[in-house]
Specification:
Blueprint lengths: L2 H24 L6 E18 L6 E17 L4 E15 L7 E18 L4 E18 L7 E21 L2 E10 L3 E5 L7 H6 L7 E4 L7 E11 L2 E16 L2 E19 L6
């Protein structure tokens, strides 16, 4: 078996193992959990640099969908958070003679220890997040190497805080969350190496890299305001996502600043089989 294929298979096996382990861990919460689900649509600014495809800086518009679910069982100190996220973007350089089309799907699983203060008005949680990403970057100009693949798995600390306060006779809530990956693995071609060499000829050239804050310092944070309107909770806020890497002589970043809007539902599951 070719070396490059062996390394890619290891990434896939590791991802499957993590997802299975996290699913089993989540199933341990069986006592009447409260579910908080937020669906958000975001639109904003995206700035991209990828020296594998171009030395130019690109900027444009990004659209993103987020499905954010928190599960907290009654009487438990730990909660589970699941987030599905997907975005597409279209960016151009200053010369406006090319377009980058980008897309990414991300899934993250988090476990958080919960604390309550100020008569439960303030909730603070901290723990860890495991995340898997798969995406692409495509240059419409074409050429020998017109596209980039994005594959990564990482783990890092995460935290969130939610503060409830009264406005009239209604309870509003302000929520902030933060995540920064610490260690993981990522796929990256070497500078000048084509995907034909990697996948067709099997010429592995250090294409699976260990990621850490020194070669891929990244973070994501989000601030949202929950506004009750009759039986609906309207959510609006800001998302900042800063992903970057410097590996195999290739520099990459994708900085996103977005307005997010959506709806939040809070409900309780009373009966779950053990």
């Amino acid at each position: 078996m070719k070396t490059s294929n062996r390394h890619l298979q290891r990434i896939i096996v590791l991802a499957c193992f993590c997802v299975q382990a996290f699913s089993l861990f989540a199933q341990s919460e069986v006592s009447a959990p409260t579910i908080v689900n937020t669906k958000l649509v975001g639109i904003g600014y995206s700035a991209i640099l990828d020296t594998y495809l171009s030395q130019e800086h690109y900027s444009g518009v990004e659209l993103r969908f987020i499905d954010h679910t928190t599960r907290h069982a009654d009487g438990r100190r730990w909660s589970t958070q699941l987030v599905h996220s997907a975005y597409i973007s279209s960016t151009t350089p200053r010369s406006d003679d090319n377009t980058f089309l980008a897309g990414m799907y991300s899934f993250s699983y988090s476990r958080h220890r919960n604390w309550h203060f100020m008569s439960d008005a303030l909730e603070v949680k901290a723990g860890f997040t495991a995340e898997a990403n798969a995406g692409f970057l495509y240059s419409t100009v074409g050429g020998n190497n017109p596209a980039q693949a994005r594959l990564a798995i990482n783990v890092g600390p995460s935290a969130a805080a939610r503060y409830r306060f009264e406005v009239g006779r209604h309870i509003w809530a302000l929520r902030y969350e933060l995540m920064a990956p610490i260690v993981g693995v990522m796929f990256a071609p070497n500078f000048g190496q084509s995907y034909y060499e990697i996948f067709s000829r099997g010429d592995y050239d250090n294409n699976v890299k260990l990621s850490h804050p020194f070669n891929s310092p990244s973070m994501r944070h989000m601030l949202t305001l929950e506004i009750p309107i009759r039986k609906t909770i309207f959510t609006i806020g800001y998302l900042g996502d800063y992903q970057q890497a410097d590996v195999n002589m290739i520099k990459y970043h994708n900085y996103s600043h977005m307005l997010v809007v959506g709806l939040t539902k809070r409900f309780k599951i009373k009966d779950i089989a053990p």
